[in-house]
Amino acid sequence: MNLQEIAADIPDYQAFLTVDELNASSHRLRDRFPDLVSIKEVGRTRAGDPIELVSISGGDQNAFVFGGPHPNEPIGCMTIEYLSQRLCEDDELRRELGFSWHFIKSIDADGMRLNEGWFNGPFTPSNYARHFYRPARREQVEWTFPIEYKNLRFNDPLPETQALMRVIDETQPELLYSLHNAGFGGVYYYVSGECAPLYDTFHLIPEWFGLALDLGEPEMSFAAPYAPAIYRMLSSTDMYDHLERNGIADPAAAMGFMASSAQYAERYDSFFLIVEMPYFEEPRVNDQSLSTTLRRDAILQALDMAAEHDAWIREQYAPIENVLRLDTPVRRALEDFLAMSAGFREADRQWVMKDESTNRPATQAELFSNLYTSRFYRLLNVGLLARMLKAEIAAGNEHGQIQAASQAATARLDADGGNLEAELDYRAIPIHSLVGVQCCAGLATAAYLNQG
Questions:
Q1: Structural domains of the chain ordered from first start
Q2: What is the pTM of this model?
């Protein structure tokens, strides 16, 4: 398998396909390759749309790949769009890998439709935030698998999660590839266990597309690295233990996350892979030169800025809560964010003061993570607030407090987004580069498993 030849073949996508466009493309693929491709319904979304599994026959081993595990993450949908076509067209590649492939292009199609406002660009942090939607924790397909761990007990998975469970049970995949992506930063990986032969390849692939590894702060403070930018898969049990170790009296209530697809697939000893890539990057995301700021101080500063930001959103939300009329996914997402942030932040304050690994100068990458990447993600919450209020006004809610809060939220979104963009030397990463990294990393992992 010539991964670099595959990398060079990725189309120059100019936009992300919508849910309807993805589904139509799957059916065209089946029509072109009826002896290879089958499509079957494995469930229905909460809105009643069919969830379709696209299968490409091949070897005895099974790979299950699903896109849009969070609906603001369409890169993986495009990865499946390319990979499914390539596997059908390239008999030699399919035979060499020895897998039958099973794809769900967008597992949370209802939520992804709420993100389609930014799929055609312009690709800027402000426009992304303006049309952004990420569900409340209890509505996240990836994090609502059943679990029993200490005081965390849950067995009411979403219909989309039930569809994933059925496919995992049916295919018992050797490879389970959940196609997440980040928003701002560099490339990093999660794997279910040590896989040293893959590390050099994982580090090399982003270079083919001119992308940087993310060598700043990990996504979660308790992430365990195997190698630079390669981490052991996060789990809700790790999350629970982190909160418990750092003074949170009821971790189950504070976290709100249940089990993930990776945890569910442990019963089949599936190898699990995530390749996190951003829409936007900046030269400092992997700068390993030292700053004059202690890492501990940088993390504490980021936590303080987050607390101020959350307090501002609460100040806007409290006076209008009783005059809101709509119960929408965007509103539930905002309310869930307000409910969850304080517990995690307090646990991280406890951790950072105890962990001696933070008592050293921060690298420029770590400083950037704390002072700038964190600002990008806070911008998204202002976007949720502004979007919720615009929907109220569009539905005829003319209450004066709604009008005032909408103006304030829109003004802050414009100001914070404009300031962030002005202070950064950022670029929007071409979609074909993002697809290429995910595609090549997945194929490299399949080859590794086939050899093992």
A1: 3-282+429-451 (3.40.630.10), 289-425 (no CATH)
A2: 0.97
